[in-house]
Each structure stands twice: as structure tokens, then as C-alpha cells.
Amino acid sequence: MTTTQGLARATPAPAQGRGRRSLGNAQAGAGWLFVLPMVVVLGLFLFLPVVMAAWVSVSDWSGRGAPWGGNVNFVGSKNYVDVLGGQGLAARDFGTAIRNNLYYVILVVPLQTVLSLLLAFMVNKRALRGKSFYRTAFYFPSVTSSVAITVLWLFLFSASGAVNAFLGWFSIQGPNWFADPRGVIHIMLGGGDGPAALQEPALFGISGWEWLAGPSVAMCAFILMAIFTTSGTFMLLFLAALQAIGEETEEAAMVDGASAWQRFWYVTLPMLRPTVFTVITLGLIGTWQVFDQIYTGTQGGPSKTTLTPAYLSYDAAFLSGDWGRGAAIAFVLFGIIVLFTILQRLILGGGDNTGTDRRAQRAEKRARTRAAAQTGGVA
Amino acid sequence: MSHPQRAVIAALATAAALTLSACGGGFTSASNTPAASQSANTNPISVLIGSSGDAETTSVKAAVAAWSTKSGIQAEVKVASDLTQQATQGFAGGKPDDVLYVSTDQLAGWAKNGSLEAYGDQLSNKSDFYPGLVKAFTYDDKFYCAPKDFSTLALVINKSMWADAGLTEADVPTTWDQLSAVAKKLTKGKRVGLAFGPEIQRVGVFMAQAGGGLLSADGKAQADAQANVDALTYVKGMLNDGSAAFSSDLGAGWGGEAFGKKMAAMVIEGNWITGAMTSTYPNVEYTVAELPAGVQKGTLQYTNCWGISADGDNKAAAISLVEFLTTTDQQLTFAKDFGVMPSVQSASAQYKTDNPTMVPFINGAEYAQNLPSMAGAADVIKEFNSQLAGLKSKDPKAILDDTQKNLQAIVG
């Protein structure tokens, strides 16, 4: 906006519209020239691979030679049908992966958001001693490689690991975390095979009873890990937002006689809404893409209860040599993430950029552009 | 997770590999043809291996270097950190390594898409390989690649626990009933009598002994056969009466760990356990016995082969290298250096003399079964294993029926 204005003012006003246009073209050319390196890099390493993956997902490419070679055939939606429809192994694996990841998302996103907000509040307190120590400490897991943390977790949660030793102090016999495939909801319901009505294969070939299993004990360890590692990252976002809120706002609320809770709930939190939106969006995207922990930790086991779509995609393509299915899973996963982000946007109203706000902004922008063009023309 | 853009990249990793492959592809086809038509092809050879450790790497490097000196053709050994993935990228890029380790799991996929050369019939020592191993590397009636070495499963017994329970050499079990009996005697406190991994790669021995197995002799799916139900029912019984346990339920990564840490008095493991015992648990004394028989003797065997890439530009040299690496003498050297069992029958007698403790393992070659390895079999086995982990509370018949359904989808 400002740039347009600045440019328009700085340029000597041409007498006719035609001259203006050719100058605009020259500038556009220069502009393209400047962005060319980035366009090439993005095109070569992002756009082209996406197109190729899309092609692989509808082809029978077997992994030998280039995927557009002569012996690669178009198979239409076969790979997608294998994954999304029917009762075959491919569909059931995908269903299991979606179920596992869904529980992961449902538990990780709210918990990490609340925890990071809490942490941000704590380290934002003026009265807190050793503030910078806590900030560093909470943020530390975020800068550590997730592979390193996963390995650490495997040790902590092993059958005779530190976590179970700790539980032992309270006479609790801890589970064999990473080898325990039982779903926590099943455990709470007392195990068994569940009612007959839930035995039939339902969505994606997974029975209703299996859908209701809840995250397995192994997945719970990963859930704890995700909350532990990411809440530091998001704490930083909340902290920045909190610091952007001036002290006078808080003081004004105090003068009005608001209690601490009221100040938080009615003043601070609404002002943090854009950040909450960001954190939840990033959280949703990140949790649907969980891969490195699974790859280093369990490879989907025990009993496929830590299988996730991202890992399944890798497994199908690189290990089973079923490239079309792997690519199809990746695209379905992409669709899921987009869907969830849109849903969340509708529910939360998109932070500060609500529909009305955006329309107002656009209208204002148009008005200013017109004004700038006129001033430019006159000057 | 902590890297928001990571998974987008992971999801498209496939594609990224392809982009690069596109460049590679062009060059290969250009340089390949003229080289192949020359009589004296001296193109260098690259060998991709997935090594079990320094001992194996050093030994293979020395052997390849010896061949290199003899033949005058340069050869380089590369150790892969993730063999399947690196080999896959090579095949996709059109510039694969000339010679590489190929597991039975990968054979079908790579044979089917034409990545591997079916050179088995050109080997001069073809008839010397164990027939069961040749069968493992036969796809579509073609003998694809020379078995590198092999392993079988046997019963590994802790000597002192055995003696403490008042058992003697005469008590080494030869039937299922005897196995249950000694397992019960050896169970004490938290220690179980018998342990094995929660996977068909171990539990499958009982299916073989019951006269079953996932595939019938003529290659039909028979997961739901009564013999298999009997086998799993037997295993389930032992798991539930506490005399046997899955190594994972004991908190061990594999049978060898459970055995070395004295969580179990006996384990069903392959000959690789001897290496782990020497290096990690040198204080545990053990003895090895052949597995007990059900209606017949039965064990499982595992093997890798020396695959040769169809797109390699010096296949003749590659075959000559493989012949060199599979000679009786060279295999005995490998056996000495890193504890594998020679894949040729002519090495058997010498091997037994050199390694008396390993005799039960190599005897298994006579009756060992291969697990199914056709395209898609790995997924079926994974699914079977995922259900097997819950065998204690599941109905063996239900697991096997489900497996039968999955297996039928890929056989025939």
C-alpha cells in the first residue's frame, strides 16, 4: 500500500495513460526478474514435486526409472479407492492410522494450547524470580531435535524405566508403555470385546469398537511427549502477544474493579485471540503430520496403534514399494489438514481477521488505492 | 510435530526423489548402451551393503578388494544406513548400485518392477546352494540372486538355570509336551521358562512344526488351516499359564535381550544371538538345541542375497564378483568374521567342525520353511503380527481367518 503510494508520488506524472502503462510494464519486468530466483526455486523444489506426486498417486509407477516413462500407466482413482474404500488391508491400515492420529490431535492440541498459555502467564509475571531461567527451560525441549527426545522418551518409558520406577514409589505398577497396544478407553471400560453392535466393520473397515478404543498406552506416551516438546514453542508466541498488551490495559481493568480472573477472562484472553488462532492452527497442522517420533520410536507398533497417516505414507511408498498408494495417502492427509483448518477457522471466526473485518479492510484498501492514483495523477 | 513444515515435506519426499531421478535417468541411458556392447568392460562396480557392524563391513570390504585385485576392476563398498530406502532411490534414479544386499521381503517388489537382474542360472556354483534358499530367491520361476548366507531359528537354553531346575541333557525337549514341561519347571518368580518375539518370525516355528504355515506347498493361502490353529492355541496356552511370554511383555527389545538379562531361561532365536551373547552378555552360559517337533520338525530361515541391478553398467563383472563372494572358502571366511552361516552345502562340513555350538542352527536348513515373500506379503505379515501381540486374549482362529482373507487378496 505504502509502496504504491510512494512510487506513484515519486514518478513524474506522465502526460498520457499509454506512457504510464509501458513504464508499468518495464517495472513489472524488473519485478519478475527480481523474484525469478525464488520462483525457479519454488517451482523446481515445491510445485514440480507436488505435480509429480499427484501424478504418481493416480499411476501404477513401480519405483523404477522416471515416473513419466513409457511403462507407467494412468490408473485413475484406483489408489484412492484402495485407501478410502473397501475392506482391504490398505483401507484398514489407513482407517487405523486416522483413528490413532485423531485421538492424538484431540488430546495434544487443546492440552498444549492451555499449557503453553499457562506457562506464558507464569514467565510473564513481573514478580517471578529467575524469569529468564524458566523461559529458557520451558523453551529448551523445542530446540532439541525430536529424534533425540524420542530416544530419551523410549528410555524413560521403558518397562523398567524412570517413569515406572517413579510410579513404583506410589505402589503403582506402571504399564510397559511402548509395548502396550490397549486403548485407554477400552481399559476404562474394562476390556472385553464390546457390544455386538460395534463389531461390524464401519468407516474405513474399522469396527465401531475399534474406533472407540482411544489412544493406546504407547500413543499416550507420544501424546505426553508432544505436549512436553511443543508447549515451549507456543509459550513463546503467547509471551510475545502478552508483552504486546500494554500494562495500562491491565491497570485500567484494575481501576474498573475487575478481579484477577475477570481481567484474564474478559480482557487478556480476548486480546490474545489472534495468537490462540495461530497456535491452534499450527498445532492442528503439526499434529496431523506426526512422523519423526513414530519413525524413530515405534514404526507404528505395537499392534499398529501408533501408526499415523504420514508414517503409513512413507511405509507404503519406500518400504512396500507401493508408490501410488503412498502418494495417495499423502494427498488425503493434505485434504484432512485443510479441512480441519477450515473448520477451526469457521468455529473460531479466524482470529482478528473476521469476515466483516476483511471486507472492511478491502474496501478501505480500494479507496486508498484510488486516492493514491488520483494524487499521483494530479501531482 | 515440532517442525510445522516437516510433514508437508515428508509427504512429498516421494516426489522430491523423483525430480532428481529425472536428471539421473537421462544420463544412464546415454552412457549405458555403448559400454555394454564393448567386450572388455572395465566400468567400476559399487556394492551397497546393510552392515551388522564393523566386523561385517571390514570383512566384506576385504573380500571385495581381493576380487578387485584379481579382476582388475575397481570396486567400492558402500554401507547403507537404511538399505531399502537407499536402494529404492537408486532404482528410481536409474543409477543403482551394481551389487546390493536384497532381503526376501524386497525381492518380489524389485523383481516385479524389473530393478533386479535374474542372473541365478548363470552362476557356476548354482547347484551348491541349499535348495530352500534358492526357492526363497526364485520369483516367477526365475532364480534371481545368489543367497549370501542364511540363518535359522533354534532353542537357546541358559545352562545354569537348566541345571538349577534339576534338568539334564536328556531333558532337552524334542516334543511340544516336553517343551511345556521344561518351560514350567524353568519358570520361577518373574522369570519365564520360554520367551520369543511377538511376531510370526518366531511364533511361526510352531506353525511349521504343526505341519502348517501361511502358504501350502503349492503356494496357496492356508493361514486358516487346522495345523495353524493348533499351533497358536498351543502358544496361547503357554502364554496364559505363565510359562512363556513375549519378549516385549518382559520389557525386552528382542529374545536375545530377554535371554541375556536372564528374564527367560529359554528363547527361540536365530544364530545371530551368539554374536550378541559374546559381545553384550559374555557371562551368560548357554547351549543351543534344535527346536522340538510337533507332528514334524520345523523352523524358519532368513536370508539375504547378492542382488544385481538390471540397470548396472557392468553386469558381467558383477556376476563374477558374486561368484567370488559365494565360493566355499570365502563363505567360511565370512562365517568366521561375523558369524553367519554359509549358504552353500559344500561349506557345511567344515563349518560344523569349526563351530560345534552352531550345529543345531545349520541342521535346521534341512527342514526350514520360508515366510511368504510375494508382493504385498510384508503388509499381511505386519497385520498378522499386530494381532498376534494380543494372542493372550484373542481367539487364534479369528486371527488366522482374518490373515487368510488378507493373504488370499495377494496370492494368485
CATH topology (fold) name of the largest domain in chain B? D-Maltodextrin-Binding Protein, domain 2
Basic shape of chain A: globular
In helices, the fraction of residues of chain A equals over 70%
The biggest sheet of chain A amounts to: none
| Tally of DSSP β-strands of chain B | 12
The average pLDDT value of chain A, as a whole number, equals: 84
Radius of gyration of chain A: 27 Å
N- and C-termini, Cα separation of chain B: 41 Å
Order of helices and strands of chain B: HHEHEHEHHEEEHHEHHEHEHEEHHHHEHH
Describe this structure in words.
The complex is a heterodimer of chains A (379) and B (412). Chain A is mainly α and 379 residues long. Chain A has a single domain (78-348), classed as Orthogonal Bundle (MetI-like fold), CATH 1.10.3720. Chain A has helices at residues 2-10, 17-57, 78-84, 89-124, 131-143, 146-156, 162-169, 184-188, 208-211, 217-244, 247-255, 260-271, 273-288, 292-297, 309-319, 323-348, 355-378. In chain A, helix 3 (78-84) crosses helix 4 and helix 4 runs antiparallel to helix 13. Chain A is globular. By secondary structure, chain B is an alpha/beta fold. Chain B is built from 18 helices and 12 strands. In chain B, the strands form 2 sheets. In chain B, strands 1, 2, 3, 6, 7, 8, 9, 10, 11 and 12 form a 10-stranded mixed beta sheet that branches. Chain B has a two-stranded antiparallel ribbon with strand order 4-5. The radius of gyration of chain B is 23 Å and the shape is globular. The two termini of chain B are 41 Å apart. The chains are: A mainly alpha (379), B alpha/beta (412). Chains A and B meet through helix 2, helix 4, helix 10, helix 13 and helix 15 of A and helix 1, helix 2, helix 4, helix 5 and helix 17 of B.
